Structure to design on (325 residues):
């Protein structure tokens, strides 16, 4: 299934957010995720199904002014 | 004490976390600044990356309050979504709201800013808007529910100091009950002192400290500049005048009548 992750088109096997993080080998603990410009709370990662064309942003804390 | 929404702080210096030569120097500079509030951003994490976790553990060691920004957002939609991501990630209703109009000057898009602030405040956010020194815009932000307004001194990272002193003074006079922070463009501790002398409640800066030859020493210098400016404001500055007025008493001047 083809989705967009952090602005890049990717073919993925996972059908849910938590599985996607595993598939892409995200290991950190401080992520926030937006699915199609809506914030997806961590409590819903396991239950949220992905579909082709979804836009996923995976975000972490970074230096800022 | 300075009030940001319903929280009070003793430090009037808010500091950024970017551009330091090393993570250790960042931590030492933040400690030397005496700041209790630091700004952070949100960025995409690449697959397998741990950059965010490493940075976040450095910040947590500092025991400071985090103010997430929406730096780099160019549309209302991006800024609102980024603010919501920040709330999810940091567990805070605070957001330094930036909507940028122009890449070269980082000039705020004040129309988008007011729109985004309105949306976010209705959603329960406590918004710290980064804006220009335009009074009309500041009033619209206050109407939208902002209790903090953060006009620039000069463009971000420019180190020019206060370009429009009269504009900033007008904001202070017209918005006496709003917490006003000079954000961006400060280059020297004297610039920070000037902002506090004008009655501004605090300053927010990053580059002037992070890019100094010795960021830790410069952080201390800014801490002192902010303290000097605040103390001077409280002490009451005299008005400027056009002519000289002798400070040494004239009565009893030797040779008074000998000089013609």
């Amino acid at each position: 299934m083809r989705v967009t992750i952090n602005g890049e088109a990717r073919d993925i096997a996972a059908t849910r957010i938590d599985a996607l993080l595993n598939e892409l080998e995200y290991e950190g603990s401080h992520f926030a995720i937006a699915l199609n410009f809506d914030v997806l709370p961590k409590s819903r990662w396991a239950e949220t199904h992905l579909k082709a064309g979804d836009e996923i942003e995976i975000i972490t804390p970074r230096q800022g002014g | 004490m300075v009030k940001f929404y319903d929280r009070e702080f003793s430090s009037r210096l808010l500091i950024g976390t970017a551009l330091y030569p090393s993570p250790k120097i960042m931590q030492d500079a933040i400690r030397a600044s005496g700041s209790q509030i630091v700004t952070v951003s949100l960025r995409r994490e690449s697959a397998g990356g741990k950059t965010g976790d490493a940075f976040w553990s450095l910040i947590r060691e500092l025991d400071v309050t985090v103010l997430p920004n929406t730096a780099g957002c160019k549309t209302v939609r991006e800024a609102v979504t980024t603010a919501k991501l920040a709330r999810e990630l940091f567990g805070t209703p605070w957001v330094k709201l930036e909507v940028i109009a122009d890449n070269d000057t980082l000039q705020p898009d004040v129309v988008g800013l007011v729109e985004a602030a309105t949306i976010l405040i209705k959603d329960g956010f406590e918004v710290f808007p980064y804006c220009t020194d335009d009074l009309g815009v500041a009033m619209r932000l206050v109407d939208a529910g902002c209790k903090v307004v953060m006009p620039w001194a000069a463009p971000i990272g420019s180190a020019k100091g206060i370009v429009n002193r009269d504009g900033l003074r007008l904001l202070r006079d017209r918005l006496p009950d709003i917490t006003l922070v000079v954000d961006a463009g400060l280059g020297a501790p004297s610039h920070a002192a000037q902002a506090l002398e004008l009655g501004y409640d605090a300053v927010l800066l990053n580059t002037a400290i992070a890019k100094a030859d010795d960021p830790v020493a410069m952080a201390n210098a800014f801490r002192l500049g902010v303290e000097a400016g605040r103390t001077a404001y409280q002490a009451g500055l005299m008005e400027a005048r056009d002519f000289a007025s002798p400070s040494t008493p004239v009565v009893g001047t030797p040779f008074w009548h000998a000089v013609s």
